[in-house]
Design goal:
- This protein is mainly alpha-helical and 259 residues long.
- Helices cover 76% and strands 0% of the residues.
- The chain has 11 helices and no strands.
- Helix 4 packs across helix 11, helix 6 crosses helix 7 and helix 6 crosses helix 9.
- It is globular.
């Protein structure tokens, strides 16, 4: 009966596992990454498998409710913060000076990778049709900015990569998550509308390309520009302290995720 006073619930177990794993990993992160050649994502995945429902069953998000919504929102927050970090870490006016290289990686290279990956998935998983394989391939074509950070971030191995390559990988990984939308929704609309060219073109071009991609990019530029001018004005007027200055970009990333 004494143990019932602890009032252990699901959020407490999540905090315990997340905080404990992060603390232990930080104590030996240099050894794991530079001696064992294992990245953070791999270690986190192994930890999730061990404590997840298929092993110890201590941490089971499936019992929390709508697991798809939880996964979606957690992924959105992680990606939007990492993409914002990529934009902050790039050199000044980088996209203006190197937009041709980024566009080349995002359009022809990414399209070829999407088609080639779909053929591999279609060959490996026989029940899938080619359209379904195209949708699966679109989900894995984009370079994850979280994984790319282990290559272009700080560390012994990142120093061996030339600076211009690290910058182009960072820029491409931050942009191509949004560029994956046309591939995903083109496949989805082809399946959903049974290859009806008129409906597919209207939904894909108007909703995905114009609204989600082009307007989304324009909206991000406006928010970033306004945020930069606002924080510069506050800094010049001595209205903002150092703590708020460091947290400002994180909160602005959360604002973008919600808006």
């Amino acid at each position: 009966m004494a143990w019932s006073q602890l009032s252990i619930n699901k959020p407490h177990l999540a905090y315990l596992i997340l905080g404990g794993f992060t603390s232990l990993f930080m104590l030996c992160s240099l050894f794991v990454k530079e001696k064992l050649y294992i990245g953070e994502a791999t270690v986190a995945t192994i930890c999730g498998i061990i404590f997840g429902p298929h092993a110890a069953n201590v941490f089971n998000p499936q019992s929390w409710g709508n697991v798809d919504q939880i996964t979606l929102e957690c992924s959105r927050v992680v990606l939007v913060v990492q993409c914002f970090a990529v934009g902050v870490e790039l050199p000044k006016a980088y996209m203006e000076r190197h937009w041709r290289s980024v566009v080349f990686l995002l359009v022809p290279v990414m399209t070829w990778g999407w088609l080639a990956t779909s053929l591999f998935i279609w060959w490996m998983i026989e029940p899938l049709t080619w359209l379904e394989s195209l949708m699966c391939a679109a989900c894995v074509t984009a370079t994850d900015p979280v994984l790319a950070s282990s290559v272009v971030g700080k560390g012994k191995f990142a120093k061996r990569i030339p600076k211009h390559l690290r910058d182009i990988i960072s820029a491409e990984s931050g942009c191509n998550d949004g560029m994956a939308f046309p591939f995903i929704y083109l496949s989805f609309n082809l399946i959903n509308f049974n290859l009806d060219a008129r409906n597919v073109t209207r939904q894909w071009f108007c909703n995905t390309v114009l609204y989600e991609c082009i307007f989304g990019a324009f909206y991000g530029v406006v928010v970033g520009y306004v945020g930069r001018r606002a924080i510069r004005w506050a800094h010049n007027k001595d209205l903002i302290d150092r703590e708020s200055f460091l947290v400002f970009y994180f909160t602005l990333a959360l604002f973008c995720a919600g808006s």
